[in-house]
Amino acid sequence: MTAQPLDGKATAAAIKTELTTRVAALREHGVIPGLATVLVGSDPASQNYVRMKHRDCEQVGIQSIRVELPADATAEQLRDAIEGLNADPACTGYIVQLPIPRHLDENWALSLIDPDKDADGLHPINLGRLVLNEPATLPCTPRGIVELLRRHDVPIKGAEVVVVGRGITVGRPLGLILTRRSENATVTLCHTGTRDLASHTRTADIVVAAAGVPHMITADMIREGAALVDVGVSRVDGVTTGDLAPDVWEKAGWVTPNPGGVGPMTRAMLLSNVVDRAEALHGR
Ligand SMILES: Nc1nc(=O)c2c([nH]1)NC[C@@H]1CN(c3ccc(C(=O)N[C@@H](CCC(=O)O)C(=O)O)cc3)C=[N+]21
Fold first, then answer.
1. Does domain 29-126 have CATH number 3.40.630.10?
2. Closest by alpha carbon to 148, among 1, 2, 7?
3. Which residue, 85, 160, 205, 267, is the most exposed by fewest CB within 10 angstroms?
């Protein structure tokens, strides 16, 4: 028996159709949602992600604004770009594409974003709201993972979830989201300091692999019938390689394809955050 795919591509397409309706309603009220991206430097992968995000916007009727800065941009230039978007009424939500060049401080840049326009949910105010159980814009990848599980009827309430990776964009916020009363999962957050990873993953109902280590989760490390979510995007000999080894498909109950799983869901949730923000900014 082979696992059922958690089809991110199809699910993202369905979400985009739903968003198209909400965007049309906003436009009827004279509100045009606008997503801006700030890209610093010319990393080809980042350029590709940004390109895909703008294409998504076009598909659902969201206006998009592209801000590009050179790799050697100064902190002042980046601050000016961010403050420009905070003040721009055409921009209802935006992201600073990560990573940014090393000479610039990521947390500093994120903290300059107007929390009401923070489409990534990575501003300290929004992460703080998440910790405090207050309504917040949530980070796109964790939100996409929860939505993907939900729409495939993978049970979350009461589930034992192992998240591998404690990064700020995925692992850490995902743990917070899944342990809210509304999700009620039990989460173990594993990381590079975890002594015996397999002892945790082997008993989990759901494993989210967000470590960025190619093929680190193998079939012998999982429970039969478990749901597996692959967040990994490593390049191995020019091929995008996830954190799940291919042999897991024969043992798991559900697996996210990669590509075609978490990536498209992340982008769909970015659009969803922008539409949420546009509705909120206009009191709807
Ligand atoms: N501020 C910020 N917000 C982000 O959300 C953000 C970021 N910075 N920096 C980089 C990561 C990475 N990321 C991806 C989103 C979609 C795909 C995606 O859709 N991938 C396709 C394949 C794309 C391809 O053809 O290469 C898939 O998985 O099917 C991948 C990666 C968002 N990120």
1. no
2. 7
3. 160
Q: What is the ipTM of this complex?
A: 0.93
| Per-residue pLDDT tens digits for 224-236 | 999 999 999 999 9
pLDDT in tens, 104-145: 999 999 999 999 999 999 999 999 999 999 999 999 999 999
For residue 97, indicate whether it is catalytic.
yes
Domain with CATH 3.40.50.10860 in the chain: 29-126
DSSP string, 140-169: HHHHHHHHHHHHTT---TT-EEEEE---TT
User: Is the entire prediction scored with pTM above 0.95?
Assistant: yes
Instruction: Decide if 251 is catalytic.
Output: no
Q: How many whole angstroms separate alpha carbon 177 and alpha carbon 156?
A: 11
Assigned superfamily of 140-264 = NAD(P)-binding Rossmann-like Domain (3.40.50.720)
